[in-house]
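Q: Can someone sanity-check these two? First one:
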Amino acid sequence: MRTHYITTKEAPFVSETFGEKYRISIVKQKTGFGEKTFMICPFCGVKRTRLYISRETLNLGFLCWKCYPQDFYKGVTHHDPGSTRNIVYRMNRLSEEIGVVTKIPFNPWDYILDRPRYMRHYKWEQFLRRMTILENMRIQSIGAGMIGIPKRKYKAEVIDYFMAEAMNIDISFEDLRRDLRDWEELYLPIKEQGD
């Protein structure tokens, strides 16, 4: 979403969003180190640091989180570790961190030659391994409609361990992509050694 901000004498703050103009009142509050700027929610009149708008709420304008009619936490996926949504979220985060656009289902062979110039080979291979492991887990988390694939949901500690140890797993890309691994079975002996 692109937003343009204009300051004028009669309206301290005007936002042009989705082709519409919205007036937002601005107030400043003194702090021990200067001033902090707040916006006033047009609906409830409370000072807020953030106001929100979407295409569905254009007629209401900008609103604070309490007045906003939709659930803010609807897209949060970290509350259900091991679910398909959580694994896709992790895959998207890994891609964003590196600055690479990937698609799902992830196939490492589609990206193996696309290493960014600034990135070391080791880091690129680590990224590809992590993504391939997550893709393997994602397929298993979907599992239900596929023939011969039991539906699996991995614990966060298992996923985190294999993200940290991706380079130490002695499994080729092709085997990671082709064979569905029981990651908990691989993780349990390692966990028992640590206990």
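And here is the second, same format, sequence then tokens:
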Amino acid sequence: MGFAHTEASTATATGMGFTGMENNTGNESDDLTVIEQQAFSLAQAGIRLDQARSADSGNQAYLAGALDSNLQVWVGIGTIVSDPESGIAENIKTNILRLRDFIVDTTMKNGTEISESMLNTLININLQISEGLLESAKNE
């Protein structure tokens, strides 16, 4: 996707806690680039959303936590791609920011009353973008 790994994007992602991986207990992210960290965070957030969907329908707190984690990951990605030193192509930056805005708007509008189909959409966006980020990192 044309993401460039820069010192500034590393500082932004790790120094400000925007990777969405602050609660990890292992060292999974220690050797990952910023892009790989974001791909990992997106996949984790997607899995958590899926688990929340599969959980007892009465567990609104788990769904709320999963939606909040997903929001945090997307806000972090928006911060990284908005960095002028990120080296990200303008069209990719625009698309990522539009996705971020869609996810923020959808989450804020629906909260835990989110429909099954919209939850599926959020999960699929996370997994597709995660895959694209990993492909991009692999090709650099």
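A (reply): Looked at the second one. Confidence is low (pLDDT under 50) at residues 1-26. Residues 7-12+32-139 form one domain.
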